[in-house]
Amino acid sequence: MKELYYRRVSSFNQDRNATLLSHYLVVKDQPETLKTHFFEGRFENVYIEIACIKALEELMLQALEFASEILATESALLKVGFWFNEMHRGDVTTAHTHDEDDELLSAVYYINVPDCSCDLILGDVAKTNPIRITPDAGEFIFFLPSQLHSVDKHQSDQMRLSIGMNIGPLEKRA
């Protein structure tokens, strides 16, 4: 990986993102939906089975294709894990990394990014020059799992919805 981060635009259009959003809203509070990482008054990670939202399968295949290009490896050798991240006015995501297992690449796909939303921040905000990325709906941002990142305070009255991902080898390394 030569760059600090990569942007890629999905083939999903506004209508397909609206469908993803509406399906998410239907299943997010189902009893079988797992929610973890309760920080700052909200669950940051909402895990929904891929079978519950059919369009997720195609989106994850796109993620793997982009990841294989960035990592210079075959997509058939990669796997992806994912979770939804729902933000409302005042929500933040605290600084963290994703390098606790066999991840090779992390990514975020943006489903809904209202005006006055929040930025993805790569680096330590307490230090000079963190990279601020203002995302657009329908795009992926890829970065190394060891990259410290956070999301600043969401300023919109509309929900911001993204999908976080970790991409690793299909076979776990010894």
CATH class: Mainly Beta
Question: What is the CATH architecture term?
Answer: Sandwich
> Pairing-aware structural class of the strands and helices?
alpha+beta
Mean pLDDT: 91
Give the total of domains. 1
* Major sheet details: 5 strands, antiparallel
Shape: globular
Q: Got a strand count?
A: 11
Measured as a percent range, the helix fraction is 10-25%
Order of helices and strands: EHEEHEEEEEEEE
CATH superfamily: q2cbj1_9rhob like domain
Radius of gyration: 15 Å
CATH topology: Jelly Rolls
CA-CA gap between termini: 22 Å
Q: Percent of residues in beta strands?
A: 35-45%
Number of helices, where a helix is a run of at least 4 consecutive DSSP H or I residues: 2
Kindly list the characteristics that best describe this protein.
174 residues; alpha+beta; Jelly Rolls; 5-stranded antiparallel beta sheet; 4-stranded antiparallel beta sheet; 11 strands; 18% helix; globular
Briefly say what this structure is.
This protein is α+β, with helices and mostly antiparallel strands and 174 residues long. Helix content is 18%, strand content 36%.
Give an overview in words.
This protein has 174 residues and is of the alpha+beta class. The protein has one domain: Sandwich (Jelly Rolls). The protein has 2 helices and 11 strands. The protein has helices spanning 14-27, 55-71, and strands spanning 5-9, 34-39, 42-47, 78-87, 93-96, 105-112, 120-122, 131-133, 139-143, 149-151, 160-169. The strands form 3 sheets. It has a 5-stranded antiparallel sheet. Strands 5-10-7-8 form a 4-stranded antiparallel sheet, with no helix packed on it. The longest helix has 17 residues, at 55-71. The two termini are 22 Å apart. The model has no long low-confidence stretch (mean pLDDT 91).
